[in-house]
Amino acid sequence: MKTLEVLWFGAATILLTALASRGETKVVADHNDGSRATGEFKFKNVPSPSTDDAAAKAKFTIVAGTRDPAGADLDKLNDGRLPTVDNTFYSEIDVISGSATEATQTVAAAIPPLLIKSADGKCDITIDTSGATDLKEWAETKLAPVLAEWFPRIVAILPSDGYTPPASFSVAIRPGRGVAATGGTRVTANANWLRRELEREAIGALLHEEVHVIQLYGRRGGNRSEGGRRLPGWLVEGIPDYIRWFLYEPQSHGADEVWMKGQNFSRVRYDGSYRQSANFLNWVTEKYDKDIVAKLNAAARAGKYGDEIWQEKSGKTAEELGNEWKAQLAKKLDIEWNPPAAGSNSNNPAPTAPTSNAATNK
Fold first, then answer.
1. Which residues pair with 25 in a beta bridge?
2. Dihedral Cα 295, 234, 349, 7, nearest 10 deg
3. HSE toward the beta carbon, residue 294, CA cutoff 13 A
4. Strand partners of residue 255
5. Are 148 and 119 within 8 A, CB to CB?
6. Domain definitions of the chain by residue range
7. Are 207 and 147 in contact (CB under 8 A)?
8. pLDDT reported for residue 62
9. Can you give the pLDDT at residue 49?
């Protein structure tokens, strides 16, 4: 789950400030969710991001506090670039109080980041706990071994022609908001949330972020071939949760029928993202195409996503498969549910926010 410190692609929010006639500042906010959150960044009440408006040449200054050196520089606020992957930070800028700066720098110098190699020796993984020193032992003995072991496994699960896995990535653990976020090869995790979930979801949530590091859909996702398009956000998040809940920790029952029994079935959708979409992907994998996740991943990297990927083995579109999946799920759970009419996508409105794991997963 991505916090909204700079820009959230899956649920993009833009703040537009303008001077009113009496010198007041007017703030207008707009928000896209679910299928409406696309790479076009089109909103109802505010214009799309621009590279040639007044803010393009603006200079930003922190007037109170100091920029956290673990975050991005201020030029990321108006460098004209957008997120390259749905629901993923492009950059994150944190400001810490001036009184805390010296102490933070002292602690960081005293506790150097942990550096480990992936199990195949091809990736350097850095884990920085200088912002949460009490989590140092947990990171070294519990988290690091899992990230190292699963890096080559995830690479093997998500292959594609011409793909080269990142040679390094970092995890910074410090107090913050939300759960965790990934931008490129940089993962930031909220220490406050991790402390509450050390025996439950902490490691799985960061394995989810490791999948984002390996996905790297931004490299060529913008150069889409004719007829192809960017992978939808629900799949960008659904694939990591599929790997997490059905391959890494299926015994946790975090996205299977056991978990589904506790959900509001009227709001369960194949494109509901995270756990719901993970369950859908697992169903398609078992019923129609064991390689569907690898195919979707390869198409995402090449910018060639389309319904033909789903139709190759099943003869059905994602929407049609989604209705079949939900009908079979309803039968398993002994829930009465009538499939929507053809072409209506769903008899339920899309949720206004991912109904998965905003507080307990990522």
1. 19
2. -150
3. 13
4. none
5. yes
6. 1-87, 111-216, 218-362
7. yes
8. 72
9. 72
Half-sphere exposure in the Cβ direction for 3 (13 Å, CA)? 17
Q: What SS3 string covers 128-149? A: ECCCCHHHHHHHHHHHHHHHHH
Report pLDDT digits (tens) over 14-44.
444 444 445 566 777 776 665 555 555 677 7
Which structure tokens are listed for 25? 């500042």
Residue 359 — very low, low, confident or very high, per pLDDT cuts 50/70/90? very low
Closest CA to 125 of 111, 140, 115: 115
In this structure, what DSSP letter does residue 49 have? P
Any idea how long the chain is? 362
Is pLDDT above 70 for 88?
Answer: no
Mean pLDDT calculated for residue range 220-245: 78
The answer to whether the beta carbons of residues 259 and 361 sit under 8 Å apart is no
Query: Where does 267-359 show beta strands of DSSP type E?
Result: none
Burial of residue 248 (CB within 10 Å: 0-12, 13-18, 19+) is buried
pLDDT for the residue 4: 37
**Tokens 């979707």 identify what position?**
296
CA 91 to each of CA 24, 247, 251, 358: distance values in angstroms, whole numbers, following the listed order: 30, 29, 34, 20
DSSP bridge partners of 173: 189
CB distance 256 to 245 below 8 Å: yes
Please tell me the least confidently modeled range out of 97-111, 148-162, 172-186: 97-111
CA 278 – CA 242 distance, rounded (Å) = 4
Q: Which fold has domain 111-216?
A: Zincin-like (3.30.2010)
Residue pair 187/205 in contact (Cβ under 8 Å)? The answer is no
Look-up: residue for tokens 């549910």?
A: 337
